[in-house]
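Student: I would love a firmer grasp of how sequence relates to backbone shape in proteins. Thank you; the sequence and its tokens follow:
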Amino acid sequence: MRAKTAEDRALLEMIDPVAESLGLAVVRVRLMGGTLRRRLQIMAERVVDNDISVEECARLSRAVSEVFDAADPISGEYLLEVSSPGIDRPLTRLLDFQLFEGFEARLETDRMVEGRKRFKGILAGVEGDNVAIDLDGEDDTALIPFEWVSDAKLVLTDELLKRGAALRAARGEPEDDGLPEGEAETEDTTNITTSTKDKA
């Protein structure tokens, strides 16, 4: 789930070692848009504590730009956006379901599981290669194979907002009155426009 398309996967293979050299882990890579102006979105965080600063976003953006300037993997102009995963973050790795055990999440599978594809409940960690989740209105903990999960995201709750406030306080940032929901408006975001050679 870190990469959705074959093109995303190819870019991720280039970005992963760059991020690792900076002590960062790539949460998700998405290349979006048409042929005229595309947007490459990279979500990343520190390996040690799953947080990231604006400065680290900028460093990763510059490092990726250098690699892409040499390799030229994207034709035409594109906007490079490096950001934190945000508070109501996507869950793209099996590790994420363990890290955020106890928080509410929404999951979607690529196939029917007991008559449905969408699930909502409290994460209960992982068991082997399965995501464990306590579903709303059900007594038993459900186990969903991670490879069947096509999309997953934390639900914005008071508990999650408190966690975000604690992270900001640890960084010495001022407390926010209310954080906007949605990936496009995450905190710790830096946007840099990079022009590649026009191959048209």
